[in-house]
Amino acid sequence: MTHQQLSMFDPALLRPALLDSVRKLSPRVQWRNPVMCVVYLGSILVTLLWLAALAGHAEAPAGFILGVALWLWFTVLFANFAEALAEGRGKAQAASLRAAKQRVLAKKLSAPRRSAGYELLESSGLRAGDAVLVEAGDVIPGDGEVLAGVASVDESAITGESAPVIRESGGDFSAVTGGTRVLSDWIVVRITANPGEAFLDRMIAMVEGARRQKTPNEIALTILLVALTLVFLLVVVTLLPFSLFAVDVSGAGAPVGITALVALLVCLIPTTIGGLLSAIGVAGMSRLMRVNVIATSGRAVEAAGDVDVLLLDKTGTITLGNRQATAFLPAPGVSEAELADAAQFASLADETPEGRSIVVLAKQRFNLRQRALGDHGIGFVPFTAQTRMSGVDCDGRAIRKGAADAVRTYIGTLGGHFPAEVERSVEDVARRGATPLVVADGARVLGVVELKDIVKGGIKERFADLRAMGIKTVMITGDNRLTAAAIAAEAGVDDFLAEATPEAKLALIRATQAEGRLVAMTGDGTNDAPALAQADVAVAMNTGTQAAKEAGNMVDLDSNPTKLIEIVEIGKQLLMTRGALTTFSVANDLAKYFAILPAVFVATYPQLAALDVMRLGSPQSAILSAVIFNALVIVFLIPLALRGVRYRATGAARLLRDNLLIYGLGGLIAPFAGIKLIDMMLNLL
Amino acid sequence: MTSNAYVQLALYLTLLGLLAWPLGRYLADVMAGRSRVVTGPLGGIERACYRLAGIDAEQEMDWKRYALAVLLFSLIGTLFTYALQRAQGWLPLNPQGFGAVSPDSAFNTAVSFVANTNWQGYAGESTMSHLTQMLALAVQNFLSAATGIAVVYALIRGLARHGAATVGNFWVDLTRATLYVLLPLSLLLAVLLVGQGVIQNFDADRSAQTVTTVHYPQARLDAHGTPLRDAAGQVLTDTLSTRSQVLSQGPVASQEAIKMLGTNGGGFFNANSAHPYENPTPLSNLMQMLAILLIPAALCFAFGREVGDIRQGWAILAAMALLFVVFALAAIWAEQQGNPTWGALGVDQAAATWQAGGNMEGKETRFGIVASALFATITTAASCGAVNAMHDSFTALGGLVPMWLMQLGEVVFGGVGSGLYGMLVFALLAVFIAGLMIGRTPEYLGKKIEAFDIKMVALVILATPTLVLAGTALALLVEPGRAGILNPGGHGFSEVLYALSSAANNNGSAFAGLSANTPFYNVLLGLAMWFGRFAVIVPVLAIAGSLAAKPRLAVTAGTLPTHGPLFVLLLIGAVVLVGALTYVPALALGPVAEHLALRES
């Protein structure tokens, strides 16, 4: 973090940002930000007044008008600078992405088979539905789905992760991303996106902020800022006739000048938030990008702040990815070593982490070596969704391991007996939150292997934080209720969904939303797609299928399900920063009234000098100080806008109280001190 | 400050609370049709009304139809009130034989009563026939108040419902508010007032012989009713003397009751509640003060019940009450302080057993400082506008209190219905700005506040300041506007600012000192009243429609609590900040400049 914060004001980012802030003076850019557009027009008006003053039509001393004009221009430039700086960081990220998007030659197949002939084609000429051949060393020319073949793919251009990943046809690992490189073997890919619509294109557009759409809350806030600007425009415009009348009836002083009125207007309208609003939005996106998450819309980032319920997959999020064998519980009449031996034998060909952990445990406990395969004339029985068992057949023995009910059914068909003691062990293991794996040799049940889920360190505290924030966590698992309840209790989640199917997941999301709660979830498989599409914040794993990525509104490049918590925090931080700066901006106005009103009316009504509580040097220095403070406060708040308001996990009531004190009360008081200080310096000069 | 002030204020608030709580429950029940009153015999009248008018009471309206009904109904009411004033010369119950009211005054008055403002450019006893008072003005007192209740109910439904396309039926809301709430309460109050000596008859004026000859100055007016001035700009006056006094008569009590209960404020007599026939005793004064804030306070409780969380109603009421106490104490303090100039001359202005002390100019001795300042605060906190003392004669700061209360948008209790819907709009605004600071997109009562809602909130917040500031600027710029100003300097400016603030915020009280019964002011203030009322009502109904359609989100530890002390302070902060940022420059040039000048002299 420290490193990244330092780089916020990296010279490499500052220089182009300075240049950009001048470039953004173009009326076409200014027009897009109504609040700053008023400042922009005010700057032009006061500059014209200064030129008029030089030509002899002075409404105030030319030096004073010039001072106000310059600082008004600075106000515009500072706001431009904030936006340019935020965009610059995004652009830097986009540039590295764009490097991946080199023009490549695609091998377009005439039919979706490897054997079919191909023609070489620019990747930009590919359309959705085309089939291409990608061989070792080739860059994948576009987003697509693997139709045939298996290949290892280097996706570091997208994820930053250097270890290659396997992509194969069918299943959950069939999606490939344009710009990544095939390292070995070959695949036939069906292109799923037209040029310019690919994942990489969308990512670049998002982080660059060039085609950034305003988010719903940003639009609403802009409307409010425009309304405030209109109120102040009204206040300032009507002040002229009020002043004319006052001068008329009191016979003293002179009507308030246009320069002073423009200065008052600019000080009053919410320039602080108006100037920093888009920078806050761009910076929020950029913070997400830094944790390697790409949001496909700004709306999703805002929604992340609103989330009430997190649906978290047990595996990988709450527990370490793989369960580990921790105990052998033999059936009556079977020794532990015999069970361990059979279990290890049945797991030899099992490449899953669970299978390996059984082999390791047997080795540790009974020093059973891993037997060389081929000694026994072995036939491996792989795990299938139908049998839900795996094992080995050799020397007439048929050793099987699997879930208790699967083994029970299997034993039943063989006419065997499932001992009550084993049944009890199964229940005990399940109640402890572990997974029981029953091992059988033919029709004889040997016992139970206990596979334990290891809950991630620190996750319980994380959930407690979430609870304090009012966010409920629900663990999703395929385990049975007993197992799920035990792990849920150990991890400290609020609720769990056991024996989860995609349908149950979708139903849970719908039911939660019907209660008026916003739901966030992660998913990777194609069967997650309906639930992802239904959830308010849906984070698809980058390793997931194309369908999952399309259904979600964010993609996690690290494919780390725990990231959901960070995403929620970033969403909240974005909204808090917006609220804090709006409150600060509006609260600032009171002090500016105390600075400017006595200054412009003291000649007409001398008694109004009593309102000059800051005892400012002169009417002109008072006005100038307020304008300078107003401009400088934008610069001072740029780091806050880019970094975001510090976020703490605590209840809404406390957060509001603390932030109101800091940004509300602080916003009322700070300008009194700031304006006084600037006024003292001006009068020293 | 005298202990009298604290005792009166505490007594007032205690009685108000005790009366408003049961009324709130009753209001919620009858408006929802749950009460046995509605299903009982009185309900027969309601159902007969619908049959007569061909209204299907079950048919609900979306917000657009609701708004259209409000606008059409008010327009027809305006035309009727205008026509009756113009035709009163030919109609019965006109013992004084008054002729038609001038077109501009009739327009102003018609809009004024329909918009629940009851700004009175005319003097009732020398302009309006008994028939006009009863059939045009008193009827609008009922209907404009009922319209306010109907509109706030549409908004409450918007907050309470979810996924709904409709916000209620305007005709049903209007009928129930009138039939079950306003009529019975008015009947009760009218009888109580008669008991205190308020008159109720159809007689012509009576003449009485005064004990001594009375001399009095009167401003010389030109043909348009504008005061003539000498070369120095001072108003020319003639001194007249008389030994007889005209005592105007009429059906006063019946109109007085709804004038207060409906926060209308339009007096039968020009002197309004300072007149002994309208407000004869301290007890009648207390009843009137209670009547003004009774329904606005009760509506807060009804709101809490409707949204299913009475604490929400308490929070809104607490914000209103806190603001009210601060303003009331400020006004009483300023008036009890008296005039700084007199203090410098060594005049004893302290309260003592035999004198009220303070600034008694323009106040009735039977009410004194506290009851007058308290009345002024109540009448401008609510958009009532009845007066029992002349606000023009208040000290500069004492006059600032009623003026700023109106400029806050009449949300400190406010008008019947309009006060609560105004305050709820401020609640949306407060939640929108500060709610972001808890890291969620803003929501109030489980409703997300989105771009459309905030656009409507912005329209509401913009409407009255535009009318007040632009209207004041216009009046100061053009000759007919400047001609009506009676006093010099900052005070003259305050008079115009007060008139526009009063009209645009639908209060109706006058600072006096401004000759406002001229075509210019009648038209300007008439427009300010119309748009001050309906340019707020339409966006409020749009918010109601938009909120009704939204889902209601669940409350968690992560949602902003809108029932605690923090929210109350936040709401107060939003009201005061918007009011201050909009009006500080104008107030600085008016009452503040005036006060500082007095203090220095």
From TrEMBL, chain A:
How is this protein positioned relative to the membrane?
Answer: Multi-pass membrane protein
What cellular-component terms does GO give this entry? plasma membrane
Lineage: superkingdom: Bacteria
Please state the protein's primary subcellular location: membrane
Catalysis: reaction(s): K(+)(out) + ATP + H2O = K(+)(in) + ADP + phosphate + H(+)
What's the EC number here? Answer: 7.2.2.6
Instruction: Specify which residues bind Mg(2+) according to the UniProt entry for this protein.
Output: D524, D528
A Pfam family reported for this protein in Swiss-Prot or TrEMBL? Hydrolase
**What CDD domains does the annotation carry?**
P-type_ATPase_K
The record's top EC class is: translocase
Annotated binding of ATP, by residue: D350, E354, F383, T384, A385, Q386, T387, R388, M389, S390, K401
Active site positions:
D313 (4-aspartylphosphate intermediate)
State which residue ranges cross the membrane. Answer: 33-56, 62-82, 219-244, 256-280, 590-610, 622-640, 660-678
Q: Which GO terms describe its molecular function?
A: ATP binding; ATP hydrolysis activity; magnesium ion binding; P-type potassium transmembrane transporter activity
The subcellular location is: Cell membrane
Q: Tell me if Iron-sulfur is a UniProt keyword of this record.
A: no
Q: Keyword annotations for this protein?
A: ATP-binding, Cell membrane, Ion transport, Magnesium, Membrane, Metal-binding, Nucleotide-binding, Phosphoprotein, Potassium, Potassium transport, Translocase, Transmembrane, Transmembrane helix, Transport
Quaternary structure and interacting proteins, as annotated? The system is composed of three essential subunits: KdpA, KdpB and KdpC.
The record's function comment reads: Part of the high-affinity ATP-driven potassium transport (or Kdp) system, which catalyzes the hydrolysis of ATP coupled with the electrogenic transport of potassium into the cytoplasm. This subunit is responsible for energy coupling to the transport system and for the release of the potassium ions to the cytoplasm.
Q: Which family does it belong to?
A: Belongs to the cation transport ATPase (P-type) (TC 3.A.3) family. Type IA subfamily.
Mind telling me what this protein is named?
A: Potassium-transporting ATPase ATP-binding subunit
Q: What is the organism lineage in this UniProt record?
A: Bacteria, Pseudomonadati, Pseudomonadota, Betaproteobacteria, Neisseriales
Name of the encoding gene: kdpB
UniProtKB/TrEMBL annotation, chain B:
| Gene Ontology cellular component annotations, sorted alphabetically | plasma membrane
Q: Which InterPro entries match?
A: KdpA
Q: Which UniProt keywords apply?
A: Cell membrane, Ion transport, Membrane, Potassium, Potassium transport, Transmembrane, Transmembrane helix, Transport
* Source organism, top-level taxon: Bacteria
Claim: Transmembrane helix is one of the keywords in the record: yes
* UniProt membrane topology term: Multi-pass membrane protein
* Homology family: Belongs to the KdpA family.
Q: Function, please?
A: Part of the high-affinity ATP-driven potassium transport (or Kdp) system, which catalyzes the hydrolysis of ATP coupled with the electrogenic transport of potassium into the cytoplasm. This subunit binds the extracellular potassium ions and delivers the ions to the membrane domain of KdpB through an intramembrane tunnel.
* HAMAP family with a match to the protein in the record: KdpA
Record PANTHER family: POTASSIUM-TRANSPORTING ATPASE A CHAIN, POTASSIUM-TRANSPORTING ATPASE POTASSIUM-BINDING SUBUNIT
Q: How does it assemble?
A: The system is composed of three essential subunits: KdpA, KdpB and KdpC.
Cross-referenced NCBIfam families: kdpA
Protein known as: Potassium-transporting ATPase potassium-binding subunit
Q: Which organism is it from?
A: Chitiniphilus eburneus
Q: Which gene encodes it?
A: kdpA
